[in-house]
Structures are given as structure tokens and as C-alpha cells.
Amino acid sequence: MTVTWEELGWERLAAGVGRCRLPGWDCTAGLVVGDGTALAVDAGSSLAEGARVREAAQRLAGRRVTHLALTHPHFDHVLGAPAFAGAQVYAAVGMDAVFAQEREELRLDAVRNGLPVADADEAVDALVPPRHLVSGEWTLDLGGGRQALLANVGPGHTAHDLVVLVPGDPEVVFCGDLVEESGAPQAGPDAVPSRWPDALDRLLALGGADALYVPGHGAVVDAAFVRRQRDELAARFGVS
Fold it and tell me: Metallo-beta-lactamase domain: from which residue to which, for each copy (predicted)?
């Protein structure tokens, strides 16, 4: 039985492209439907949440999720990744080292932010480093004329920021936490503030003036919003 994006609580952004705002941390999870393929963008904060995202994505796509792109290595975006068994996982260069060497910090950050200890332990134990590491740009052919461009535009919010651009009318850009709408962008100990405005310049150059920009948290925004946030970050951190 065919379901609509709205029936599952997802927001349709363009033909075959949409996202949902997950409860708890208002984290975005995205979906791009191809011909016989489906690309998920970010995976939620736990194995249970990842499984819910995967199930909804597969109902909307009418097929299993074949690809998963992780925008950056924060728990609310990546700890659901092990629930996407069989998917080809993509991330920025360096995410493999984070998953291999910083697992305890990832677990502690999740617990500090309110994820139950048992859920954090379960997810971190199951976490596997991403197989496909993006150093510049990587075009995924999703079939049926549909492509998605994975671009390593960071560092900025973290040292390993990946964005996903989906050509179309309109063009859609999944920004991860390089852009946040529901509050001021969070700059934790792994942020690279001096480079963040440059990352947003590259993001805007890729997406252009008419794209829909999907933040890691909050409502979809336009290029003018991203440009204002870029200038605010530059002023906040004393960079040009």
C-alpha cells in the first residue's frame, strides 16, 4: 500500500526527496529516492531510532535503503547507523578514525545529552566505521537519472562535515549542523570556528541562490538565511 510523506510525518521537499524531524533533539533525517535505490541522510541517535527511520524510509521509497550518508560524527546523527544493515555508508574523511578511536567520547556525549546509558552502550558497541570516505566531492548515481553529490565542505561545525546536494527543481541541500535554524549553531570542542564561514561559502556556492537548505536542526531555510548565519558566525568567532 502506497503511503504519502505526510502520513508518516515526513516533509516532502521535491519529487522523491524529503526529510523528517526526529523527536528529542529535533535532528533531521533525509531521504532521496532513486530507481531501485534509496539514500538516507543521517541515522538518528540510537539503534531504535535508526530502525524507525529506516522503516519509514523504506515504506516511502518502496525498497530497502541502499545508501546512507552521515553528515558529521555527533551521536544524534550517527548512532542509528548500525540499524541500516546492508547499506553503503558514506562520510567525510576522518570519520573512520572518530568511530575507531573516539568511541568512548561519543558514548559519553550521548549520555551527557540525555540518551539512556543502555541505548548509548548498545549503539556504540554496534558502530562500524563508514566504508566510503569523501575527501572532495563524490557523485552517487541513484538510477533513473537521479544523482546526489556528496561534498566534504568542512571543517566547520566539526572537522568532518559532509553535505548532500540533490539536483532538481528545486535543488535540495542537506547541510548537517553546518546550518541550524531552531537555535544558534552549536560550537563544541570539536568545532573549527576559524574555518566555519569558509565551509558555508562553499555550501552556498554548491547550492546557489534558489536551493532549499535543510539544516541539521530546525525548519528548511533559503540561501539568504545561510548567508546571514555565515556572517553571524564570522562575527562571533572574529574571522572574515
Answer: 26-217
Cβ(29)–Cβ(19) below 8 Å:
yes
- Cα angle at 229 between 240 and 172, to 5 degrees? 120
- CATH class in words for 6-237: alpha beta
Tens digit of each residue's pLDDT, the chain (240 residues): 679 999 999 999 999 999 999 999 999 999 999 999 999 999 999 999 999 999 999 999 999 999 999 999 999 999 999 999 999 999 999 999 999 999 999 999 999 999 999 999 999 999 999 999 999 999 999 999 999 999 999 899 999 999 999 999 999 999 999 999 999 899 999 999 999 999 999 999 999 999 999 999 999 999 999 999 999 999 999 997
In the chain, domain spans: 6-237
pTM assigned to the model: 0.97
Task: Please tell me whether residue 85 adopts helix, strand or coil conformation.
Answer: coil
Question: Edge to edge, what strands does the sheet with 132-134 contain?
Answer: 11-14, 17-21, 28-33, 38-41, 67-69, 88-92, 132-134
Other Cβ atoms within 10 Å of 222 Cβ, number: 14
Tell me the CA distances in angstroms from 117 to 17, 110, 127, 179, one per residue in order.
34, 8, 15, 29
If one counts every other C-beta atom within 10 angstroms of the C-beta of residue 76, the result is 25
